[in-house]
Amino acid sequence: MKALDLFDKLNTNLGPLGKHSELSEGYFTFPKLEGEIAPRMKFKGKEVLTWSLNNYLGLANHPDIRKADAEAAAKWGAAYPMGARMMSGQTDLHEQLERELAEFVGKESAYLLNYGYQGIMSVIDSLLDRKDVVVYDSECHACIIDALRMHLGKRYVFPHNDIDNCEKQLERATKLAQEQGGGILVITEGVFGMTGDQGKLAEIVKLKEKFDFRLLVDDAHGFGTMGQTGAGTAEEQGVQEEVDLYFSTFAKSMASIGAFIAGDAKVIHYLKYNMRSQIFAKSLPMLLVEGALKRLDMLRTQPELKDNLWKIVNALKNGLIEKGFSIGKSNSPVTPVVLNGTVGEAATMSKDLRENYNIFCSVVIYPVVPKGMIILRLIPTAVHTLEDVAETIAAFEAVKEKLTSGYYKTTELAISFGE
Ligand SMILES: Cc1ncc(COP(=O)(O)O)c(C=O)c1O
């Protein structure tokens, strides 16, 4: 008997995002933004005002950072140190960065991770065995969902930020953990990257009075942007101590690559010896470690970076609300502009924004959000200006009016994309 060719299905099923690839590639998916990382970049040869920079504090192109990165590259090249931390990739600077990160987020110890995505998967994977039970927020990032796919035990999900339901799941989890002789890990995020609302960390921490669990927070969007010192969302909500494991990537406020996990020394020591993605992969290159030390130093000593960010965030949010836009429940820099329409209308509106108003932002559509919802996602940074904000709001008013009048419904693009 002959098996099917594994690749046959690729002819008919390219997946939920891939199915639009013929129409979208190079424009809506895999667009190329060229030039220095800044609010004004080139898209298809034309200058656009960009709101997708992954650069909250404006560090990506800060002259001091560019200088530090260039010097580190000249000094170390891209390869050093050689292998995995445990084998031949350990250096004083890796350890120094870990000490400084731990101190900054108020934890005993920290450990570097090569990428946030695979790093947090390994954190979760190495902490859990089949007797342990996980309780997590339904909107957790894909890296957390993938980590839980590896978990051999039970997991209970609570609807996004629904603390009453979280408590119910904790009751179920406690019962099961008691029966099985396991523990409980609760996982949520500091700031949810699509909707911009903060995880209800303080309310989850309060549940520790009733239940025994450990709390892991992915604060990718909160590190450097939230809290008085920029130490993140748990600092903002006054519960830094009660968060057992604090995670952030360097991909947002630090405008780089890498990540870290911080917590009690004994837990971090355990992770260091058990996280497969770090034991079996090359250490973070020196170029990134030195770069991260410089970025952390600026983040700590130049509060004006965060103040500038929030000046833009507040102007953008207040301006949008004043003009009658919904920004959902955002209480962080992530600013979603929530509209209604089909996938086709979203594509046409986004093209109109790029072609005729010179505004480039991400468009979030079904299946990431429910059918009929469109989110234009704006990520303000410290290097945007108040003029950028005004220009964007004016453009949004114009396209919203076209959307509600049905103008985008009948374009060829809208019809090709469909619902
Ligand atoms: C919430 C969240 N967690 C984890 C990650 C993954 O981090 P990295 O890009 O360092 O792999 C991201 C995206 O960068 C994220 O938004």
From TrEMBL:
Ranges of residues in domain Aminotransferase class I/classII large: 47-395
InterPro entries: Aminotrans_II_pyridoxalP_BS, Aminotransferase_I/II_large, AON_synthase_class-II, PyrdxlP-dep_Trfase, PyrdxlP-dep_Trfase_major, PyrdxlP-dep_Trfase_small
Organism per entry: Belliella buryatensis
This protein's pathway: Lipid metabolism
Keyword terms of this UniProt record: Pyridoxal phosphate, Transferase
Key word Transferase present: yes
Classification of source organism: Bacteria, Pseudomonadati, Bacteroidota, Cytophagia, Cytophagales
Presence of keyword Mitochondrion: no
Protein name: Glycine C-acetyltransferase
